Amino acid sequence: MxxxxxxxxxxxxxxxxxxxxxxxxxxxxxxxxxSIFSGEGGLTFPMDTEAEGLVTxxxxxxxxxxxxxxxxxxxxxxxxxALDGLGRQDVATPTDYEGLPVVNNMRSWFFGGKQDRGAHxxxxxxxxxxxxxxxxxxxxxxxxxxxxxxxxxxxxSQICIKWNITIGLFWVLPNIYMPLDAHSRGxxxxxxxxxVKGANLPAGEEYLxxxxxxxxxxxxxxxxxxxxxxxxxxxxxxxWGWHPIDQDTWDQLLDDSSIFNPQAQALLRRMMDxxxxxxxxxxxxxxxxxxxxxxxxxTNMAVKVAKALDCPLWQGKYWPILFYGKNTSKDDAGxxxxxxxxxxxxxxxxxxxxxxxLYAEPDGEAASQxxxxxxxTDAQFLQDVFVSKSDLTAMKGLLERKKNLILQGAPGTGxxxxxxxxxxxxMGEEDxxxxxxxxxxxxxxxxxxxxxYRPNSEGGFDIQPGIFADFCSRxxxxxxxxxxxxxxxxxxxxxxxxxxxxxxxxxxxxxxxSVELSIDRRRLTVPENLFIIGMMNTADRGLALIDYALRRRxxxxxxxxxxxxxxxxxxxxDTGNEKLSALVDAxxxxxxxIEKDPALGQGFCIxxxxxxxxxxxxxxxxxxxxxxxxxxxxxxxxxxxxxRVCKLTDKLEGVFNA
Length: 658
Known about the structure:
Blueprint: H1 8-20, H2 27-36, H3 59-64, H4 72-85, H5 121-137, H6 142-156, H7 164-172, H8 182-192, H9 204-217, H10 222-231, H11 247-254, H12 262-273, E1 277-278, H13 280-287, H14 291-309, E2 323-327, E3 336-340, H15 342-349, E4 374-375, H16 378-384, H17 389-402, E5 404-409, H18 415-427, E6 429-430, E7 435-439, H19 446-449, E8 451-455, E9 461-465, H20 467-476, E10 483-488, H21 495-499, H22 502-505, E11 514-516, E12 523-525, E13 530-537, H23 548-551, E14 555-559, H24 566-575, H25 578-596, H26 619-637, H27 642-657
Parallel strand pairs: 5-13, 5-14, 7-10, 10-13
Antiparallel strand pairs: 1-3, 2-3, 4-6, 8-9, 11-12
Helix pairs in contact: 2-4, 5-6, 6-9, 8-10, 11-15, 13-14, 16-18, 25-27, 26-27
């Protein structure tokens, strides 16, 4: 690969040298950053330096400003402005960026936000940059190597630092440091036989030893290796040494009705509908029939394929002819997961399986996709959920227009209960197979939601799609029907980090567009027929407000306490419990106090879900609702005003002392 392709190298070297010259006055780099991203030239970077209280930024984040998902024209402009700002008008603007890995726009910082980063995080990144530059001038220097390893170790435990730091080092010194992103690690293992052990970033000395091993294995410079790694495509994995059948052969086998019989058709159509992987228990629960029905369908088809092709078997088992497989976690339904082999999956995608019943036939009569499900009307929704008809019309209209809706409200306003029934009302039937659900929490990640590494049965790790990417694939294969993904507690996670590049794709105007995922370069689309419903508790003081990037992409609907709606009042009357009615009257008075309090307001009012009881509910159960659910909430709201807490709890207790 001729070096003339790598026209970016002189510019990158000049920028690195210019920043090294700022090591004793690091605030100059922030001034240069601000001059480039002042907004006047249409160049932007997702960082508010004033709000973050920054006095400098690190060299790796500065390099990331032009090594991320921006157009070539903007990339050239940023590089040119950086060179000019460093007084390097003599260095040409690059004409190509061959072999350069880039980072995700949403993950282009090498340090955390103001609330997350340590006091010395940015300084530590500067120390690593300087140590890397100094080791490059004296590669054999023992002291320089020790300083580099020590600086690397100081940074590797910081927030926002993973394998991206190896990419940053490559940008700075592409002759000295090789990027160790997932694709490059796969290339090194497959082509050079250098395996980077473990899924976590290695320690500093181990990282330098990997660099030494690469130099010993090849004479190619690192920037050429990085370009080769970008072009490299891994061989498909074939666990247990069994060689897969190619797609053309599968096409022929599927034409044979003795092999692809109705039982096999039902198994594979339902597997495809489930995203290409499922346990037999999950298939039975979702589509009907028994677990053994699917086990026997898979085994019988595999036996016939083995006989037709004289296939070798793995440990005498037939199912690996059709599927990959692995044990499931204890939280999954079923104990063993089947995953359709990719060659068979591609052959199935080219076939029209719409005549194969998706759901089992009840009582021996053929069942279509719709008749297998119970109808669900707007009237049923209004009976189940205590909102007005105009509220339902508004929610459905918002979902149709924005495709993304957040139900927000105080505790007990029925947000989670309403979300699933809103999906059913949009579908016109109760079809749980077209509803996905996840609850966000503080530890929820992009790897869980979109794509990431998962342990495999061989003790290693595979790249696997997350729950939302899987659901998108299912919806895309069934474009004629609507799918709904429900996210409970949507503001409990770091939204920008969890969604990543999906922040653009979930927009109504970008449905059907695709982006290339940085982890393995596959493309992902959020289809037109997928709707997202989130829930957000407005009364939780411990949660951050949802960020503006996400807020612009969602419509927000307030779920208010329904204590005075006709449906709730009818339910209250049906219980026949006077204490419950009196407690609701008392809570109405408490809600007036909450609304008047400027520190609380309507978003903290007590919802109706606390009082949704069955006919014949006992007085002691109603008292339990007051003592153990409502009164602790009041104490939390006015933790600094015990006099008011006593007044309001006495009001509630008065219901039961009368």
